[in-house]
Amino acid sequence: MTLYVSDLDGTLLADSGKLKPRTADMLNSFIDCGTLFSYCTARGLATASEIMSGVRINAPVVLMNGVYIYDPVTGEYPFRASFGEKQCSLLKQTIEENGETPLIYAFIDGRERMSFVESAPNLKRFLSRRKGDSRRRPVECAGDMFAGELFYAAFIDPVNLPVLERVFTPENGFMTASYIDTYPPHQRWFEVFPAEAGKAGAVAKLKTLTGADEVVCFGDNANDLPMFKAADRCYAVGNAIPELKAVADGVIGTNEGYGVPEFIQSEIYPVFAYEPPFAGEPDAERFRISVEKALERERTTIGTLNEKAIHNALKCYYCDEADHEAKIGGFYADGAGENGIFEIQSGNFGYLAKKLPKMLQTSHVTVVYPYEKKTHNYSINEKTGEIMSVTSRTENSYSRLFLELYRIKAFLTNPNLTIRIAFIEIDKKTYYKDERRIRRRGQKKEKYPTALLREICLENPEDYRIFLPEGLPEQFTSSDLAVLCRPTDASLMLSVLGFTGVITRCGKRRNSILYKAR
How far is Cα 510 from Cα 26, in angstroms, rounded to an integer? Predict the structure, then answer.
């Protein structure tokens, strides 16, 4: 089994320092399939666990550049390092002699705390982003920072970097990481931790703890170099520094472009051969025959049709009868044959989300969504058979479709998934006892398809561009989109198109978020 281990900032997280919803959903879909996923970061438990709270991590994680390993499943620390008496003394002496004002991390009374000189100018930007951090322990002078069990020191824009590099060596019991921060203003960070710690050793421990056959690592910065050396395979994201790309086994997509989750997806989901059925215009004759089969199958003894007529007509149209109701693992599919698995789903795609992780590892999956484009409503006198009235309605909103797509958003970029929207014309017949049209319980109703008008086939993220309305500005707000796509719910459309990568945020206009097509 493969264990995937990713750095966070600049690698898995977006440039904003946050985890994109699509990334979280994709990772959860992999984990639900049994994929082992962890992260290895310079962050502590408090900030890392908050940022990654939307992911159901199923393996221990590496924190503070390998100073400790935490198991989110059990709440235990399989490994934890700290400075010895000699290292604490040398650390304190060096800081005081050189006028340094670092962040000092320690366990005090069983709690992880972060001590710092409150007036230090080099810490202002960092601390402004950590106002709610429960670890904060401000002090008046550097000499008050050394309480508890010390395990980490982080120097931001150090005063005397050459001295720090000369003092904090493996010979003196230290490991260090020196790099330029991912986020503006791109400050120099020099981090010091116990010699027995480090990303390399922590990754090796993770492999043992999980029983993985191989470890695949992802990173972007210089502090990921030790982790890369310990990995069986290592990949730099497209925005990584040149030094990391030079030693990587390959370069994948950027952090903003979902490089890590898309790479994992490509590994755990082999791409299956697939030939789209009925390319071009719908086969009217085949659909007519399919409807006849469905009506015959679904007609009850009292002569009415139940709600499965549309479902069965589309199943007969897309799948040969011999391929119906195929068992895939612990689930049943509507059909399975040479062109993969077919699922006819008019609603509740949330149920599909339970099936898709297994099905997509087995075959190509086509989900057919019946979009009731034209509906003819017949009011019929039950006694005489007379048609009392006919009304027709044309549906122009994609809100229901986007709601269903949102429910399986984590899978929309999977190369083995096709969404096929079948635009159908249907007849609805309501039978009344007499011409007064009094509604009553158990009233006879029929609903069945009469024609397949057209199809939209969504086979890759680019295909979702079809939903972007004409006249959309290069940069637009949700309100701009709502005007052009009405009556479709613009917020649902934005969510789905954002997950597929068709659109992306690009700024703000007063209080409104700006988007653009990628």
Answer: 32
Strand, helix or coil for residue 470: coil
- Is the separation of the CB atoms in 497 and 503 below 8 Å? yes
In Å, what is the CA distance from 93 to each residue of 45, 98, 99, 121, 453?
28, 9, 10, 21, 80
Q: Is the peptide bond before 185 cis (omega within 30 degrees of 0)?
A: yes
Q: What is the pLDDT of residues 184-206, one digit of tens each?
A: 778 899 999 898 888 898 999 99
Determine the Cα–Cα distance for residues 115 and 397; give it in Å rounded to an integer. 56
Beta bridge partners of 513: 508
Mean pLDDT per 10-residue section of the chain, whose length is 518 residues? 95 92 90 91 89 94 91 89 92 92 91 90 87 87 90 92 93 89 83 88 92 95 91 96 95 93 90 77 90 77 58 87 66 80 88 84 91 93 86 94 91 91 93 71 78 93 93 93 92 90 86 89
Domains, in order of start, for the chain: 2-78+198-268 (3.40.50.1000), 85-194 (3.30.1240.10), 284-459 (no CATH), 461-518 (1.10.10.10)
In angstroms, the CA 460 to CA 63 distance is 36
Q: DSSP string covering 200-251, please?
A: HHHHHHHHHHHT-SEEEEEE-SGGGHHHHHHSSEEEE-TTS-HHHHHHSSEE
Provide Rg for the chain, Cα atoms: 30
Give the three-state DSSP class for 90.
helix
C-alpha separations of 417 from 191, 457, 459 in Å = 45, 11, 7
On average, the pLDDT of the chain sits at: 88
Phi and psi dihedrals of 428, rounded to 5? -115, 125
Residue 346: predicted pLDDT:
87
> Residue 479: which H helix or E strand, with range?
helix 478-485
218 neighbors 2 (Cβ within 8 angstroms): no
Coil/strand/helix, residue 392: strand
How many angstroms separate the CA atoms of 113 and 285, rounded? 73
What pTM does this model have? Answer: 0.70
